[in-house]
TrEMBL record:
Membrane topology: Multi-pass membrane protein
Places the protein is found: Membrane
Protein name as it appears in the record: Uncharacterized protein
Principal location listed in the UniProt entry: membrane
Cellular component aspect of the GO annotation: membrane
Keyword Transmembrane (UniProt): yes
TM stretches of this protein: 76-96, 108-127, 133-150
Region listing for Disordered, in residue ranges: 1-22
UniProt entry tagged with the keyword Membrane: yes
């Protein structure tokens, strides 16, 4: 090799065999097909806050609490909708597990009250044809309430069942 050899990009000599060198870029800057992570035209990386470097969270960075955060880490709309899927059982589960989010707790209370009342009505009419009609009504109500809880999660709008929703909202506000 001649003494006029210069590596691409830097004027420093290339590393010797067996020498470890920290990686500063994914590819050689001069070649043109590689770039530093902060040079990508990726909207996620380019819009990263100052405390983030190349899309990776800073060590020890604290996230600020928001009204959309949940204890279980599921999306807000999903947690609110899941409060209704098995009636009072999932409502009670989310009342016990979700301590952070009032929107989810409201739907958990509303689920417990609504389907607790429905359970009592089923026990009264257990051997009648009316019970079969109530089961169909229960399924439609579960699907409707799950949809409303999920659809309104972005705006934190609480869909309230008359009387029951007001009671659930009162209990959440008193907590």
């Amino acid at each position: 090799m001649s003494d006029s050899y210069q590596p691409l990009g830097d004027s420093a000599q290339p590393p010797q065999y067996g020498e470890t060198v920290p990686q500063t870029s994914y590819y050689d800057k001069e070649v043109g097909f590689g770039a530093q992570p902060d040079q990508f035209n990726d909207p996620v990386l380019s819009s990263a806050p100052d405390d983030l470097e190349a899309g990776a969270p800073a060590v020890g960075a604290q996230r600020s609490e928001s009204r959309f955060d949940t204890t279980l880490g599921l999306p807000l709309g999903a947690e609110a909708a899941l409060c209704y899927i098995f009636g009072c059982l999932t409502g009670a589960f989310f009342l016990i597990c979700e301590r952070k989010n009032d929107y989810v707790r409201f739907h958990a209370w509303q689920s417990c009250i609504t389907f607790g009342i429905m359970l009592l009505i089923h026990l009264i009419f257990i051997w009648s044809i009316f019970s079969l009609i109530l089961i169909a009504f229960d399924l439609m109500l579960i699907i409707f309430l799950m949809y409303m809880a999920h659809a309104h999660a972005d705006a934190l709008h609480r869909f309230k069942i008359p009387l029951i929703g007001a009671l659930a909202e009162k209990w959440v506000d008193e907590e």
